[in-house]
Amino acid sequence: MRTTRFLLIVSIATVFCLLYVHQQLMLVKLSYQLKDNQKKYSNLLDQNKIIKYNIACLKSPKKVEDMLAAENIKLVMPPVWHVVKIAGEENTNRRLASNDGSSRTSKGLFSFLSLKRVAVAGTIDYKE
Could you give the angle at the alpha carbon of 38 between the alpha carbons of 36 and 43, nearest 5°? Predict the structure, then answer.
């Protein structure tokens, strides 16, 4: 009876020890995964910064000018008859240049019910 009780206590202690060791191994494994994920995240952030920088460089007027010069593309101002002026253009420019930054003009109490204007652009084919 004493031996069976002793074996029962030893086996229960062994199971608890094995569970503790398993828990510690999982903790170490998860810490390595966390460290790897942090490295990947850091690399992705670096790549993101590099890509944003490249996008900003490609959008810069100097880069566009250099690319056009490399391809021997000459840009010239269009003739006056190629330029199409849109009615109300002066009003739009005045609103954009306002100090308060708002592009709305108040026309009355029920101005929120009015329909907003929509600009539609298209191409005009001129035969020379």
Answer: 95
